[in-house]
């Protein structure tokens, strides 16, 4: 039997568009001689649909779409597709995260997700009821053990999942499955690919069965789904592989376990680059924008943001804006201009000195007798925010804010200033990674000016300012942030690992007291294992 893994890019809520993609994939499956077409988790609704699931009309439309797709199938080509089903019994949670086997003009069987993730960015227990039994899907005499994403992750190596005592994959294998299938919406994070491979390779070896996993490709809000669908033989070896970070159709032969192995990213830098580009491209497109505008300071954060935006959207859709003040150095203005020339983007220079001066004059009576401090620094950042938002309003471009994860962690950013924007592209990328990715982008030729990469970072909001005046060096800061935010280590544990006591306590205090800023930040593109935002829900009015 020839099986097609349809690694498509769906949009949350866009049921008609998602169904168009599904029909097109099935038509290509016919052309390629496939007998079964397998789609990702929640293909019909898009993933994650969040509280759209509270609306009856939405659930009904998704069910109607399934019936209509089933009606156009025949006995030569079946499909397994993710959707949202209603429970057959009454209860507090009426919905199931499900897969349907369709063929011969009808819905043949339904297969519900057993293990519901309720950690990090996942909250499926909010909407869904877990399955309490599983059974293979049977098509043309072949028994498919259908699991939905977490069914493999939570049940790996027989580990019990807090949602349910059932081990769905082991049960499906024991029921005589010929192939274990995983329909997934597994978001990308740095380092996750090796874990994912271990999960599915381990399942294949443990049950002595081939495993095929089809994953969503595309960006939805902060999440990036990297595709990278795979087929594993019973020895746990990859025998067929889809491309990553884009739509792809992977056809494999079940009897011989053979298929193409498409090339994928070869380094962490290449993965992160493609993830950020895909996340931005889909965020802009799915939100109805075409163009973006970026404040170019001459610093490395805005330079990297602009380079990624050009790669994602094309130079013709990116505008860079230099907004010099009395403290902007000549080299920073030159670096911003050279960057724009290297990227081939529209470049505007809009000085903010007059605006800044007007604010200082207007506030001088209220500030009489007080020395300048961070207040005046923030006024400059807010002037720039007003300029960018004005351009956004006038020309319909989306503002990209340029702060990195290190700055967002410790609050080294200005609300309503440099934090203005519709999406914060690199705010889950630590500062050391900003340098690392910038050097990777320059691996063949200078795109980001080398002077931007090599000079000490500065906000340039007062004379001779450097980031290190206010923060520990990033080589010290970033590991503390990672250990506290991503690895959940305590102050005492981080100090015990060799970090300076006073520095650790200072950094963690800054992280804790700046939650109010992060709550007001633009959405990010999730890259690390624990991003600020939906996946890290911390109190604001708290002491800890």
Report what the structure shows:
It is a single chain. With 544 residues, the chain is an alpha/beta fold. It has 3 domains: 2-260, Carbon-nitrogen hydrolase (Nitrilase/N-carbamoyl-D-aminoacid amidohydrolase, 4-Layer Sandwich), CATH 3.60.110.10; 271-470 and 514-519, Rossmann fold (3-Layer(aba) Sandwich); 472-513. Helix content is 37%, strand content 17%. The chain contains 17 helices and 19 strands. It has helices at residues 15-31, 56-71, 150-153, 168-174, 192-207, 268-286, 300-313, 330-343, 353-367, 374-395, 405-410, 431-441, 450-454, 474-486, 491-496, 501-513, 515-519, and strands spanning 2-7, 36-38, 78-86, 95-103, 106-112, 137-139, 142-148, 179-184, 211-215, 217-220, 223-226, 230-232, 238-241, 248-253, 292-295, 318-322, 346-349, 398-401, 423-424. The strands form 4 sheets. A 6-stranded mixed beta sheet has the order 5-4-3-2-1-14. Strands 6-7-8-9-12-13 form a 6-stranded mixed beta sheet. The longest helix is centred in the last third of the chain and has 22 residues, at 374-395. The radius of gyration is 26 Å and the shape is elongated. The relative contact order is 0.08. The mean pLDDT is 93.
In short:
The protein has 544 residues and is of the alpha/beta class. It has helices spanning 15-31, 56-71, 150-153, 168-174, 192-207, 268-286, 300-313, 330-343, 353-367, 374-395, 405-410, 431-441, 450-454, 474-486, 491-496, 501-513, 515-519, and strands spanning 2-7, 36-38, 78-86, 95-103, 106-112, 137-139, 142-148, 179-184, 211-215, 217-220, 223-226, 230-232, 238-241, 248-253, 292-295, 318-322, 346-349, 398-401, 423-424.
